[in-house]
From TrEMBL:
Annotated source species: Marinibaculum pumilum
Cross-referenced SUPFAM superfamilies: Glucocorticoid receptor-like (DNA-binding domain)
Domain of life: Bacteria
Family in the record: Belongs to the universal ribosomal protein uS14 family.
InterPro entries: Ribosomal_uS14, Ribosomal_uS14_bac/plastid, Ribosomal_uS14_CS
Functional note: Binds 16S rRNA, required for the assembly of 30S particles and may also be responsible for determining the conformation of the 16S rRNA at the A site.
Assembly, per entry: Part of the 30S ribosomal subunit. Contacts proteins S3 and S10.
Name of one Pfam family that matches: Ribosomal_S14
Protein name according to UniProt: Small ribosomal subunit protein uS14
Gene Ontology CC terms: ribosome
Gene: rpsN
Keyword Cytoplasm: no
Length: 101
């Protein structure tokens, strides 16, 4: 089980990313627009730098919903490989069966 503080930090980042998503997208569009004045684009860069770093979507880590584990997480299920195997063995994931050959 992952530390609770790490899990909560990730939740805080998700909330912050959602809160600042529209503002970040607008400023990034201004900075990429070549037709605008360079000073206007530079101001947009400065405003973008003022937004908290944790508001960036890339800082969010995929974590297992059961254990909080950050490595080997399947995006489709949002479960780590360990939790996925345990739940599949118990028959709690519809349509998933243990393979044998």
């Amino acid at each position: 089980m992952a530390k609770t503080s790490i899990i909560e930090r990730n939740k805080k980042r998700q909330k912050m990313a959602k809160q600042y998503a529209a503002r970040r997208a607008r400023l990034k569009a201004i900075t990429r627009d070549e037709s605008l004045d360079p000073e206007e684009r530079f101001e947009a860069h400065l405003k973008l730098a003022q937004i908290p770093r944790n508001a960036s979507k890339t800082r969010i880590k995929n974590r297992c919903q059961v254990s909080g584990r950050s490595k080997a997480v399947y995006r489709k299920f949002m479960l780590s490989r360990i939790a996925l195997r345990d739940l599949a063995s118990e028959g709690k994931i519809p349509g998933m069966v243990k393979s044998s050959w």
